[in-house]
Amino acid sequence: xxxxxxxxxxxxxxxxxxxxxxxxxxxxxxxxxxxxxxxxxxxxxxxxxxxxxxxxxxxxxxxxxxxxxxxxxxxxxxxxxxxxxxxxxxxxxxxxxxxxxxxxxxxxxxxxxxxxxxxxxxxxxxxxxxxxxxxxxxxxxxxxxxxxxxxxxxxxxxxxxxxxxxxxxxxxxxxxxxxxxxxxxxxxxxxxxxxxxxxxxxxxxxxxxxxxxxxxxxxxxxxxxxxxxxxxxxxxxxxxxxxxxxxxxxxxxxxxxxxxxxxxxxxxxxxxxxxxxxxxxxxxxxxxxxxxxxxxxxxxxxxxxxxxxxxxxxxxxxxxxxxxxxxxxxxxxxxxxxxxxxxxxxxxxxxxxxxxxxxxxxxxxxxxxxxxxxxxxxxxxxxxxxxxxxxxxxxxxxxxxxxxxxxxxxxxxxxxxxxxxxxxxxxxxxxxxxxxxxxxxxxxxxxx
Length: 448
Description:
By secondary structure, the protein is an alpha/beta fold.
């Protein structure tokens, strides 16, 4: 049995992390405690349907087990990666048996723990609705993906969603300590740490908030520790002394902090954090998120996000930024990793320290909004590609004014369709370049 399973917490007091959910006076803790209190007095318990959402190794399954142990419900477990319609039907069939109705009238029905619910299709999720509504089945579902995108809406409306966060290093250290202790007892080892505090912290920081990864690193450290013989050679039962070094801990925990899935929420969260850091002119944060992308080997996503950021957030305040960033990206793609990090770092620092403007971005979004609403109208007669007049034309002649034939290459005429002729999409930004363009525009118009 994996170490993470051996030391899985059985009570709330042993549970690590998620203080925002299980801390004193928190809603989820009250739900769990009240369930236990009602169960101890054999009162009718109505545990609400719950959805646990968050990264792997943050305690979703553990907390579901703790909740299940405090109820008198019949616990059933399914995993969305393996469960089929037949498995769901089998559990639904139990709702009409003694398992569903309970022994002695004390059971509140079946408690279904459905892990990785996002892998069930809509029809499979819908099959649970009737039994959730009549209370014969209570659902605790877990998912690593955003439930508002992956869980059927009717299930969501009947459930309460709780988000699990990556566990802080300080909260993981007690689990690491318990892991080493259990491992030593089972294998009859006496573990000697080069520097216990530093080793524990190295593992806790290197697991990226995933307790399971931390305990996997503990196993590796214990199994690969350097043996220095027994503490008492004449005693066969004496524990074997093993030295755990800082280097071993670092190697065991390496790359664990990179929590990344190109198809999952972490992918989009990381790209979002990169762009928002650039938009906020924080080059240190932006470099950090770029480093996480590159450590995961996702060079294409980094390049694409930098290119769109140059146009969306720097824009007309420094139009040449997109040209420079494009050159940096071309260099990065030609070089490949690890050298690609250098031109991309240049692009990130340039974008962070450049003046910002989203005027063009806002302008095109306003224009698109009108088009989507059907506010288009016909082209003004003088803009049409029309070189002759038909009998149905009330106004003869195209009457287009060629701007280059006028002073300053400008002449007043209508360009937008009649229905939206007064629409204003673009507003000049408050940066030096756009203000200079505004002054030029006003000067040209003022000389008419």
